[in-house]
Design brief:
Helix content is 0%, strand content 50%. By secondary structure, the chain is an all-beta fold.
């Protein structure tokens, strides 16, 4: 990791204005990471290039398995480099152990291909929000989705994102598990290309206590806006 915020005593750090190039596409867990319970951080206006087998920005509790209040991932430019990966990769990845993460106003593109579990954004419904990001997945063929949201009992707000998907790719995918009956709210946004805008098409046994509120979708060229 180029920059790591590490440990429960690491509180309120700001990482801003850095340029990090992984031009050789070396495997690494992340270019910028918050881990081991570091909390209330801000990762803002950084420019990152070259993702393989890991993440551009990652909030991941490696060995501290108790929830920590997360921080802000705002205004970053992340170019994955459109390389290939064997292991799943993500331009932004936040585990369920980080609550209330704000992922906003980022520009994400050049997602690696080669593994269908790779994502541009991977996060959990743990009270945060994903808003006003530009998510360009036109190079990311063969992905299950551009953005995946896994179960969490605190809900999530998704608002005002502009996403572009390659042919046959989903834009947003809600994964299986217990959502605790707290609504996931999807407001506005624009979907361009791809097969499905919002997908929660899972078996009744794999997704429980799930409430999804969708309103004010502004524009779309996607084949199906909602498949639930």
């Amino acid at each position: 990791v180029a920059i790591a915020l590490n440990g429960t005593s690491c509180y309120g750090c700001v990482v801003t204005g850095n340029t990090i190039n992984n031009e050789a596409f070396n495997s690494c867990s992340a270019l910028i990471a918050a881990e081991e319970g570091a909390s209330q951080w801000t990762i803002e206006e950084n420019t990152l290039f070259g993702i393989k087998d890991g993440s551009g920005i990652s909030a991941l509790n490696v060995a501290v398995f108790t929830p920590a209040r997360g921080g802000k991932i705002i205004g970053n430019i992340i170019n994955g480099g459109s390389g290939t990966t064997t292991n799943p990769a993500a331009l932004v990845s936040c585990s369920a152990y980080y609550t209330d993460v704000d992922i906003s106003h980022n520009s994400l593109y050049g997602c690696p291909t080669g593994n269908s579990n790779t994502r541009l954004i991977l996060c959990s419904a743990t009270g945060g929000r994903v808003s006003d990001n530009t998510i360009d997945g036109t190079s990311a063929t063969g992905l299950g989705a551009l953005v995946s949201i896994s179960a969490g009992v605190n809900g999530i707000v998704v608002e005002g994102n502009i996403s572009t998907a390659a042919t046959g790719v989903r834009h947003f995918l809600f994964g299986g598990g217990d959502y605790g009956s707290t609504p996931c709210t999807f407001i506005g946004g624009k979907f361009y290309g791809g097969a499905e805008g919002i997908n929660s098409e899972l078996s009744a046994g794999s997704i429980t206590n799930f409430a999804l509120h969708i309103r004010n979708i502004a524009d779309s060229t996607v084949t199906n806006i909602v498949n639930a």
